[in-house]
Structures are given as C-alpha cells and as structure tokens.
Specification:
Chain B: Belongs to the peroxiredoxin family. Prx5 subfamily. The complex is a heterodimer of chains A (about 160) and B (about 200). Chain A has about 160 residues and is α/β, with parallel strands linked by helices. Chain A contains 6 helices and 9 strands; from the N terminus they run E-E-H-E-H-H-E-H-E-H-E-E-E-E-H. In chain A, about 45% of the residues are buried. Chain B is an alpha+beta fold and about 200 residues long. In chain B, strand 8 and strand 9 form a beta hairpin. In chain B, strands 2-1-5-4-3-8-9 form a 7-stranded mixed β-sheet. A two-stranded antiparallel ribbon of chain B has the order 6-7. Mean pLDDT of chain B is about 85; it is low at about 1-30. Classes of the chains: A alpha/beta (about 160), B alpha+beta (about 200).
C-alpha cells in the first residue's frame, strides 16, 4: 500500500484496547474519527526509548492544547498487543486524553502504508513513527519520519498546523 | 494417542542411555519430546535476551544462539502466551520466582522464561515482575516455538501467533521433562511447583 498522504481518506480498521473496567474491546477507526478532528500518531514499539521518553510524552503534555484547538481524539497506535499497550499506558499515570490502541497484527498499519521492517532489531513488522491530523476522515497533515528520527512527527509540529 | 507411544518407543533407546529420567508428556504431538536435543530441534534459531533499547544498540542487537543457552547446563525453561497477560503475570511467573532457591539447590543454573514478544517488552515486564533471578528471552518471530511445534495461533484472543503454555527441564541440551498445557489458558502442569517435583 502506498503511504497515506494529505487529502487521502483514512482507511477503516479495527484496533484493540482495554476499557476502564478492564474489558478487552475492539473499535473501528472510522467510528472514532468520523465527523471529528482527530490526531492519529504511531510509534515503532511500546517500551522503546524514543517512543516512551520523547514521542508519547509530547502528546500527553500537549493534550489540553490540542483539545482547546478543537481536537476531539488523540489516538496512539503501535504494533503491539492490547495487554502490552495497557501496561505501557500505565507507565503514564498523568495521561488523561491519549488513547493507547493496539494494532497487534499490523493490519491497520499496513492499510496506512506505514509499515517498517524492524526484524533485525528484534521487533518484526512495526509502524513508522508518524503523526496525522485527520478531519472527518480526511488527512490534513501527514508527518512521517523517514527512519529512526524524531523530528516531524512530534506534538509540537502538529500543533503548528492547527 | 498412537503417535505419543510411537515417540516414546523411538526415544526409549536414547532413554536407556540416560539414567534417572522421569518422562512426562502431557501432549501427544510435539516435535520436541523427552530425550530430544533442543538445539538440534531448532538448529538455526536464536533468542533475544530481554534488554533495553540502549542495550540493544550497544550489543548491535545481538541474539543468543540456543547452544549458548543450553549446552553443558541444567536449565529449567518455561514458555507462555504473552508478557503482561493475566495467568502469565499472576500465576505462571510467580510459581518460578517463588521457587528460585529450591531450583538452585537442585543444581539448576538457569531459569528461563520465553514468550513470543520482543525483547524490549520482555524487559519492561521483567522489571515490573521484579523477577531478577529469572532470565527473560523474547522469541519475537516465534521461530523458536515453531521449531519445537509449541506455537499456537491466539488471534482469537487478539494476540496473534504465540505459543503454548509449557515448561521443560533440559540438561546439556537434552529434554528430560516436558509439560504442555492442553490449552494455554490453563495452568495445571507447567508451573514451577510441578517441575520442581519432576527434576
């Protein structure tokens, strides 16, 4: 699949998560994003440093600013299972708005065309580091990192676009 | 099952060379069974030691070949469906953590926990479990478990391809004891208490 780009409609797909009563749930991306302003950002892996110490905290800290600018949802996806996503989310007790969603088999990541083969690092097929601003399912901003960097996909960059 | 008896009789010639073996095979079909050499069953397979990313970088993302883990050692190894999942976290790992001293008293040199997870998740989980005496390894692409025919598709539980819940006692690479749950959600034969009594 060609990587998702500005003006594309984001594909629908199913992601998994544990709700407040610890029930395993699945949800469709379109049901979360239709008619809304949504930030969707992806990381190569839970419990890895750039993801954990730089990328995710930026979105957690700026969540209120995003909300003030009309963003309804901030969705984080990673090719990890929902148990791992839940445990990783718990390492951010201050998080109020970012939803940690599991794309365990990389199906949605592949549909976005944002997959990355990290087998030699012991990770397998994962997601590129990226951040999308999506308005009523249409991609307005697509910031996708080339390799392992952390530049365009940060919360600051997407905030500038709002 | 007929195939289990066939395997046992094939192994009996190897077993007669090995004294004091107590064979427990609770599942008929596994490519590794008592008497088999675990390294030979998975010749080109390596595991990834649980690590932080920085450790990964500085080690050049090195992996550990099975022979380094098993040859010349007495090893107790157990596999489970997934880091951070219920039975694995609450019951399976603790049953080994709580018996560390007893394993050591029996001359066990390594107690290994392996799962089809990447080594960074395994490290995050190991730290949460505070199980310092257990060595955690990731079988990130499932190749170790597939070679031993201990893999299991858990897509229904939204986990994807994973492994059975199992335990084994391996001496110098030879499987002396193998316990495999009939379903991975169960925790009857693969715990630390059970295998302690089988060594």
């Amino acid at each position: 699949m060609a990587p998702i780009a500005v003006a594309d409609v984001i594909p629908d797909g199913t992601l998994a998560y544990f709700d407040e009563s610890d029930q395993l749930k699945t949800i469709s991306v379109h049901s979360l994003a239709a008619g809304k302003k949504v930030i969707l950002f992806g990381v190569p892996g839970a419990f890895t440093p750039t993801c954990s110490m730089k990328h995710v905290p930026g979105f957690i800290e700026k969540a209120e600013e995003f909300k003030a600018k009309g963003v309804d949802e901030i969705l984080l996806i990673s090719v990890n299972d929902p148990f791992v996503m839940k445990a990783w989310a718990k390492t951010y007790p201050e998080n109020k708005h970012v939803k940690f969603l599991a794309d365990g088999s990389a199906t949605y990541t592949l549909a976005l065309g944002l997959e990355l083969d990290l087998a030699e690092k012991g990770l397998g097929t994962r997601s590129r580091r990226f951040a999308l601003l999506v308005d009523d399912l249409k991609v307005k901003v697509a910031n996708v990192e080339e390799g392992g960097e952390f530049t365009v996909s940060s919360a600051e960059e997407i905030l500038k676009a709002l | 099952m007929a195939s289990a008896f066939l395997r046992r009789s094939n192994c009996s010639s190897m077993q007669s060379m090995v004294t004091g073996v107590r064979a427990v095979v609770s599942r008929a079909f596994a490519s590794v069974s008592v008497g088999a050499d675990i390294v030979d069953a998975a010749p080109s397979v390596s595991l990834q030691k649980a690590r932080t990313w920085d450790e990964g970088v500085s080690s050049n993302f090195s992996t550990t070949p099975l022979k380094d883990i098993f040859k010349g050692k007495k090893v107790v190894i157990f596999g489970l469906p997934g880091a951070f999942t219920g039975v694995c976290t609450k019951a399976h790992v603790p049953s080994y953590k709580n018996n560390i001293d007893k394993f050591k008293a029996k001359g066990i040199e390594s107690i290994i926990c392996v799962a089809v997870n990447d080594p960074y998740v395994m490290k995050g989980w190991a730290e949460k479990l505070e199980a310092n005496e257990i060595e955690f390894y990731g079988d990130f692409d499932g190749s170790f478990h597939k070679s031993l025919v201990l893999d299991k598709d858990l897509s229904g539980a939204l986990l994807g391809p994973r492994s059975q819940r199992w335990s084994a006692y391996v001496e110098d690479g030879k499987v002396k004891v193998l316990n495999v749950e009939t379903v991975p959600s169960e925790f009857k034969v693969s715990g630390g208490d059970v295998i302690l009594g089988q060594i």
